[in-house]
Write a structure and sequence with these properties.
The chain is an all-alpha fold. The chain has helices spanning about 1-15, 25-50, 55-80, 85-115, 120-145, 155-159. The protein has a domain at about 5-115: Up-down Bundle (A middle domain of Talin 1). It is built from 6 helices and no strands. The longest helix has 30 residues, at about 55-80. It starts with a helix and ends with a helix. It is found in: Cytoplasm.
Length: about 160
C-alpha cells in the first residue's frame, strides 16, 4: 500500500496546482481514483494480515476515511470544472487536498504500527506533505496577489 500512498500526494499537489487550469482536473481525478482503488485492495490485505487485530481495524478505518476524503476532493474538482472562476470553490478544493494529504499520513502511521519497517516511508511522506501544504498556501496567496513584492516584481515573473 505504501507505493500507492506516495502517488496520492503528487496527484493532490497537481490538483491544487490545476486550480488555474480546471480542464486538467478530470484526468487527475480519474488517475487519483484508480490509485485509491489499488490502495484500497492492498490496504484490505494489509489489514487482514496485521497483528494485533486492532492494528488491522485501524488500517481499514483510515483507508476508508482517506476514501471519503478522495470523494470530496473529486466532487470539488468537478464543481470547479463547472464554474472555473469561483474563488470559493478553488479554496475548498485546496482545503480538501490538504485534508486528504493529512489522511494519507494517518494511513501511513497505521501501516507503520503494523510494520516497523515503514518508518522511513512515514518520515518521507510527512516531509512531502508539509512541503505540499506550504506550496499550496504560497500558490494560493501568490495567485490571489496578496504577497507583497519587494521590488515591483510579479508572481508571474517568478512562476
Amino acid at each position: 500500500p505504501v507505493n500507492c500512498l506516495f502517488l496520492l500526494p503528487v496527484f493532490f499537489f497537481q490538483m491544487t496546482k490545476s486550480v488555474t487550469n480546471p480542464e486538467e482536473l478530470g484526468g487527475l481525478a480519474s488517475q487519483m481514483t484508480n490509485d485509491y482503488g489499488h490502495l484500497a485492495l492492498q490496504g484490505r490485505m494489509a489489514a487482514a494480515t496485521a497483528e494485533p487485530e486492532e492494528i488491522g481495524f485501524q488500517i481499514k478505518t483510515r483507508v476508508q476515511e482517506l476514501g471519503h476524503g478522495c470523494i470530496f476532493l473529486v466532487q470539488k474538482a468537478g464543481a470547479l470544472q463547472i464554474c472555473p472562476t469561483d474563488s470559493y470553490t478553488k479554496r475548498e478544493l485546496i482545503e480538501c487536498a490538504r485534508a486528504v494529504t493529512e489522511k494519507v499520513s494517518l494511513v501511513l502511521s497505521a501501516l507503520q504500527a503494523g510494520n516497523k519497517g515503514t518508518q522511513a516511508c512515514i518520515t518521507a511522506a510527512s516531509a512531502v506533505s508539509g512541503i505540499i501544504a506550504d506550496l499550496d498556501t504560497t500558490i494560493m496567496f501568490a495567485t490571489a496577489g496578496t504577497l507583497n513584492a519587494e521590488n515591483n516584481e510579479s508572481f508571474a515573473d517568478h512562476r
